[in-house]
């Protein structure tokens, strides 16, 4: 019952708990060598134990400290039974029955926590059924994890390490181990490199480790770098250095590397004031890679500038024909409006003034002299309108005054959108990213020229989303999908796009399956999110300090009762059109996962970091 749950545990509901394992004095089950231990964690479900995960196996040790850990979600409303079993690994078999069983212990997760402390270590004796002999002790350390997607990239080398072995003449077989402090009492390993044999200057392969794993995002927490010699039967500590992430990150480069000295563990134990150094570590790379989400940028004031371009070529069919893709006699059956309202409304939620630049192409106005790529308003001095409803109104007016033509060329459209993006002059303090939404009924005719233009603008804060409508075969458009491993390339200069900046999706004609188009819109927005993050990373732009959303009067027209964005109680409520109603929300939501913003809350603070 909920009333019986510890209120302290309720405060942790949904938290991720990391479980780290070490052992002491394990039973030695090998005749000629020491036990090769591995820990297996199981959870009880419906009265049955089910394996949850395994650590790595460590050779020849009765006192293992495992790098692999277990991460579980805390659910205070249920009793979470855990069992930890130790095995002596004797072969490569994945089946546990082929390995010697050392012992086990079981416990409930709540007994391993000591809130409000974030770290707790519990030691328990291992046992086996029907055997009273000691099997060793297991130390179970739990820590409440802090959310972070950041990583540290490391490339390290030992330098002039002490020799080991008989008369200290042998070059050591060395691996590097990184450990984090547990309440400044003990250190538990979080990463272990491969062994480099017979070298006093071993260089290990570059690797990445998450900030969460390294120090649980605590920049001033002690971490230990230690070099070990493995003789085949024993482990010998060569030297170690205790530092912190902040100190390592701030340390200046000595030429091409950062260098830290290693101290002798024996001299430390002897109590000598002056440490004896046993070599050093050189870090040719020690870089903190900050991995942000789109919402981090949105909270910091990033705005998305939407540009819409609509295909009015003759292949759409005459507007008077029932099967015309531009037929507006029943707007529920118009895929162009569906794409504008579904995807356009998602994007404009992240622009405070909701100004949308609109173009049409592939047609001529019946009574005006306008270029191939013309303003949807029909006014060459006015390309922008306010809000998606204004876009749909401009579309419905334009479609009745156009003579459809051709061909389907979009390079000009991309060039105009690129000019807009370039004029925004994005910077750390001014974060504006442009999105060109092209809606077309067929494969574009200037494909090579379009690809060349896409490549040439890939350095700009611009993404190009192409939505295909109608029954055409869009297979050739798949090359614009951003999930392709191969980047677009200029066929003449062989220049490759700096980054992926395009995405293609096809909208379905069947109106009875609106969920498919909503899914396509969300997938498009997810691809857009990744492209924005890639651009920001390439240009070393990070999120600004989070800002509170303020609803200003100019956000909506108080004289227009049909305005598609109504502001009430600091909640923006999207009410426009049929396709949006399919999203089943009463306010702005995360377009990728659909998380809803509650009334009265900050627009962005309640959205999960799902991007």
UniProtKB/TrEMBL annotation:
Q: Which UniProt keywords apply?
A: Repeat
Cited Gene3D superfamilies = C2 domain, von Willebrand factor, type A domain
Q: Name one Pfam family in it.
A: C2
Can you provide one Gene Ontology molecular function annotated for this UniProt record? calcium-dependent phospholipid binding
Tell me the segments the record calls region Disordered. 256-275
VWFA domain: residues covered: 305-470
- Enumerate the spans annotated as C2 domain: 1-122
> Mind telling me which CDD domains this protein's record contains?
C2A_Copine (cd04048), C2B_Copine (cd04047)
What SUPFAM superfamilies has UniProt attached to this entry?
Answer: C2 domain (Calcium/lipid-binding domain, CaLB), vWA-like
Top-level taxon in the UniProt lineage: Eukaryota
| InterPro entries reported for this sequence | C2_dom, C2_domain_sf, C2B_Copine, Copine, Copine_C, VWF_A, vWFA_dom_sf
An individual GO BP term: cellular response to calcium ion
Cellular component, GO annotation: plasma membrane
Q: Which family does it belong to?
A: Belongs to the copine family.
Q: What is this protein called?
A: Uncharacterized protein
Source organism of the structure: Mytilus galloprovincialis (Mediterranean mussel)
Upper taxonomic lineage: Eukaryota, Metazoa, Spiralia, Lophotrochozoa, Mollusca
